[in-house]
Structures are given as C-alpha cells and as structure tokens.
Design a protein that fits this description.
Elements: H1 3-8, H2 12-36, H3 43-61
Helix pairs in contact: 2-3
C-alpha cells in the first residue's frame, strides 16, 4: 500500500485522540507562558491560542 493511500485511511478516532492530546499540551504551555510573563498577551501566547483555535475547529469537523 502506498503512503498516499495509507494517508487516506486515517481513523477519525485516532485523529480525534491525537488532536485532544495536542490541545492539552497547548493548554499547559499557554498557562505556563502566561504565568511567566508580566503581559499575558505576548506574541507567543497569541500564536499558541491561534493554533489551539485551529485544532478546536478541526475537532468540530470530525465525525462524532
């Protein structure tokens, strides 16, 4: 089976699991970055929150 064909057969359950793990990691990093900075809206936090929003959107598009 080719790599391209294998990529088309991704199990949504595994993808959901991986995305939820990534959300947890992002939440921890965002919380840590906020606690270390005087200004909570620094550039790193904004970038991480943008990534978190994209992952949430991807999760909402997956079949239930």
């Amino acid at each position: 089976m080719s790599t391209a064909a294998a990529a088309l057969n991704i199990n949504p359950l595994f993808l959901r699991h991986d995305l939820m793990i990534e959300l947890g990691r992002l939440d921890m990093v965002i919380e840590d970055a906020r606690s270390r900075q005087q200004t909570p809206q620094n550039e790193l936090v904004v970038q991480l929150e943008t990534r978190r929003a994209r992952i949430n959107e991807a999760l909402s598009r997956l079949p239930a």
